[in-house]
Amino acid sequence: MWETIQQKENYPIFRITYLSSPVTPFTDADFDDIESKSVEANNARDVTGLLIVNDERILQVLEGREAAVRDLYTKIEADARHTITKLVCEVEDEERMLLTWSMVVRGMNRMPSDILEQYIQIYDELLHAESQSEVTIDHVEVFKTISLFGALPIHL
To answer: Which residues pair with 90 in a beta bridge?
Structure first.
């Protein structure tokens, strides 16, 4: 369903990872809005990424051509729904880590506790790490698990 196989592109891949916190709790409508708008826009920009939200913890990874990713990040910084806590890294790579993920948006409210704990551990590692700490393929595997559990949101 979601490819995490790295792929080499014919141009350098620029990746930004940041952490933020929501101004107010995200609702299912917020997730739907973000995902529906970002998938189309990111496809047009050739940007891949993921957004994971758990209470006060938002983690996002964006990758693609540098100009497109930086432009998108500038728009994200201005989004009033959250406040950037830390720019974890800006790195150039030869390969995409999020090959087919135009934008995966997942809330963690209904996630099994062991997966939630893994996410919190990754988030806290990145929050307290030195600058330019990178998201690893192992992190992406945890994100893949999160995306599969969150694929069908339950509306109560």
So the answer is: 16
55: three-class secondary structure by DSSP: coil
Residue 10 CA to residue 29 CA, distance in Å, equals 37
Looking only at the bridges linking them, the beta strands covering 104-107 and 48-54 are parallel
Question: What CA–CA distance (Å, rounded) separates 20 from 14?
Answer: 20
Task: Write out pLDDT tens, residues 42-90.
Answer: 888 889 888 888 888 889 999 999 999 999 999 999 999 899 999 999 9
pTM of the model: 0.81
Distance, CA of 105 to CA of 130 (rounded, Å): 26
Q: Cβ distance 68 to 45 under 8 Å?
A: yes
Tell me the domain boundaries of the chain: 7-149
Q: Looking up tokens 């135009």, which residue turns up?
A: 102
The residues, ordered by sequence, that sit 6+ positions from 10 with a Cβ below 8 Å of its Cβ are: none
CATH of 7-149, one of 3.30.70.100, 3.30.70.330, 1.20.140.10, 3.30.200.20: 3.30.70.100
- What is the distance, to the nearest Å, from the Cα of residue 93 to the centroid of all Cα atoms in its chain? 17
